[in-house]
Amino acid sequence: AAAAAGGAGAAAALWSEVNRCGQNGDFARALKPVNKILQINKDDVTALQCKVVCLIQNGNFKEALGVINTHTKVLTSDIIAFEKAYCEYRLNRIENALKTIQSASQQTDKLKELYGQVLYRLERYDDCLAAYRDLIRNSQDEYEEERKTNLSAVVAAQSTWEKVMPEDLGLREATYELCYNSACALIGQGKLNEAMKKLHKAEAFFLFALLFVQDVTEEDIEAELAIIHGQMAYIMQLQGRTEDALQLYNQIIKLKPTDVGLLAVIANNIITINKDQNVFDSKKKVKLTNAEGVEHKLSKKQLQAIEFNKALLAMYTNQAEQCRKLSASLQSQSPEHLLPVLIQAAQLCREKQHAKAVGLLQDFADQHPVNAAEIKLTMAQLKIAQGSVTKACMILRSIEELQHKPGMVSALVTMYSHEEDIDSAIEVFTQAIQWYQQFQARINYGCCVFQPKSPVHLSLIREAANFKLKHGRKKEAISDLEELWKQNPKDVHTLAQLISAYSLVDPEKAKVLSKHLPSSDTMSLKVDVDALENSHGATYVRKKAGKLAGDNQQKEQGQGEVKKKKKKKKGKLPKNYDPKVTPDPERWLPMRERSYYRGRKKGKKKDQVGKGTQGSTTASSSELDASRTASSPPTSPRPGSAAAVSATSNVIPPRHQKPAGAPATKKKQQQKKKKGAKGGW
């Protein structure tokens, strides 16, 4: 009895310590007395609940869930349903959390709040919207503002991912979160300018709210502003302001925010701006999309877009195997989606396997008839790129839902005309016109009511008639023009075309139809004649007409006078012209362009300059030796040679000759003096 009393006293002391730690918010310290209580009684329900709460508060969700699962007999779903569902939610086991909430016997307010969060993560936005509306309607506490924020987030997600026109919930945008969510909803509607204004308003609200908060760190401020600025950059990108968007994206990345989801979205958007350019930067950015936990932060469509861009980047960087692997994985996840098969076809085209790409697209079109139109358009584009225009036309004509559209008819007629297949082009016109005639009547209360021909139908008939007239099919064009004239007998333009066509085939019929043309009196136009005559063009014509009238008068006056004809000057002939010799047919071409031009002949002396060793000469020494030549004078006079000297009076005597090296020595001395003068003075 004494031992039991001692145990009860110890337990009471432990519970008091647990209570004190709980009031102080010290849940880590509270675990110690809770564990001691459980040592005394391992199945104590209250102690187990306290332990689970302490572990959740400390962020140990996995351990808390382990405690719940190991004590299922004691901790039933009625007791611990919220804590179990919350642990599963935080561990990203969203489907399990939903099952836990739905299996609870009693739906408390806490479970309803968590239920809304779970539905949002599962992207069941309609159910989530209904859950939050019920919560706001049936609860009155201090968390009403948070519920409204969550409600606006659901509306924004519907507008962005499901393209649903959001209804006006009457939420007053009193906080920056509400302004931000409203901006996201406007982006989903395509109202980009209004969304940008809302984001600026959200930024202003946030900065104003900081004035009343003291415990906010710079990291928290930068993180919140980074989300707003990232959405601003996204709007700029959608508006085509890619340079501004890229600059803002890079500024956010430099801040290194802790939100891996935000970084992944920004990196993906930068990759889309880079496209096939700056692939090295894209390869760096793609690493941010692979960060741990990204898959739990983003929606399915965001993750899918990132995977598509990874496959495209692999294609741009010539990683063919990686591209095929990623696109095949995407196709297995979404078999009906177009992009994976289009990426595979593009990769095959880069490898010059066009036939294989067309076959791949054809198989997809056969398996998924709903998306066959877009696939066949791509197939036609590939055929055109290969030069098979006729096959491309056959593919386009096989798209039943588009073959009678005006744009498709125009494209087919243009392509057939390029191939000079006029019969096929006319057949396209005929089929389109018959299609509109077939669906001209509509059923109204069991009766067939005929409507007047639509503008599209009439425009097709007119284009067909113009095409046939252009290509000489007069009789076929006449039937189309008659149909148009029956629809609108007052159309003078159609009547004129009809008369013109009949004039080439049946002139009598053209005369009969011409009686239906309005008279010139009825066709008078309201024209200000004075203003027309005083216009610039009319003044010029009038002056020119006056000059012509004056010239005519002068001609009439001088009709009798015989005008002297001006003699043409004969062209000057070159001085060396020989009429017997045929002139050079290439004489008008520059010398370099003539067929017989062989380049400039270089002089022999110029070629010899600078060749050989220093001081050597090209001529032999015997040729330059004056003593060996017969005409050279003797170096000194000999006795009895006076007559010879007088006979060669042009030879200068040796004494009067200047030394051979004298001028060169003087120049060298002058150069030396000049060099010395620089330093001497």
TrEMBL record:
GO biological process: SRP-dependent cotranslational protein targeting to membrane
Basic and acidic residues composition-biased segments: 575-596
Compartments in which it is found: Cytoplasm; Endoplasmic reticulum
Disordered as annotated region, ranges: 543-681
Gene Ontology terms, MF aspect: 7S RNA binding; ribosome binding
TPR repeats: 226-259
Main localization of the protein described in the UniProt heading: cytoplasm
Low complexity: compositionally biased ranges: 627-644
Keyword Calcium among record annotations: no
Domain of life of the organism encoding this protein: Eukaryota
Basic residues: compositionally biased ranges: 563-573, 665-681
Pfam families: SRP72 (PF08492), SRP_TPR_like (PF17004)
Entry-linked InterPro entries: Signal_recog_part_SRP72_RNA-bd, SRP72, SRP72_TPR-like, TPR-like_helical_dom_sf, TPR_rpt
Family per similarity comment: Belongs to the SRP72 family.
PANTHER family named in the record: SIGNAL RECOGNITION PARTICLE 72, SIGNAL RECOGNITION PARTICLE SUBUNIT SRP72
Protein name in UniProt: Signal recognition particle subunit SRP72
Organism (species): Ceyx cyanopectus
Taxonomic classification: Eukaryota, Metazoa, Chordata, Craniata, Vertebrata
